[in-house]
Amino acid sequence: MSSFTVKPGVTLPPVLNLAVVVAEVMAAYSVQCVITSGTDGKHMVGSLHYADRALDFRSRGIAPELQQTIATQVRERLGPDYDFIVEGDHFHGEFDRKG
């Protein structure tokens, strides 16, 4: 699994930061990170996908327990301004600043 490093102090756009963190967490479990949707596709009206603030990631083939572990670690690393949930056939992550 290959990954990349972001130099400390570098600020990334929220959706890019989401992708980096998910890729790093998945790589730790030898899972390939595949982004399956960004601004493309059909999403709910008002979805943050259309505002370039949400991404979906493939979860197919990942055991349910590992999906939960990945989701928990991603949430811990991203903090409260991001939502990251398991939606059955994929992970959904979004930048949704609170307060």
Low-confidence sequence ranges: none
Report the sheet-strand fraction.
Answer: 15-25%
Using only C-alpha atoms, the radius of gyration works out to: 13 Å
CATH architecture: Alpha-Beta Complex
Largest sheet features: 4 strands, antiparallel
Assembly classification: single chain
Mean pLDDT equals 87
Helix and strand element order: HEEHEE
Q: Could you describe the 3D structure shown?
A:
By secondary structure, the protein is of the alpha+beta class. It has one domain: Aspartate Aminotransferase, domain 1. The protein has two helices and four strands; from the N terminus they run αββαββ. It has helices spanning 14-28, 64-78; strands at residues 35-37, 54-58, 82-86, 90-95. The protein has a four-stranded antiparallel beta sheet with strand order 1-2-4-3, with helices on one face. A hairpin with a 3-residue loop joins strand 3 (82-86) and strand 4 (90-95). The model has no long low-confidence stretch (mean pLDDT 87).
Q: How would you sum up this structure in a few lines?
A:
The protein is built from two helices and four strands; from the N terminus they run αββαββ. It has 99 residues and is an alpha+beta fold.
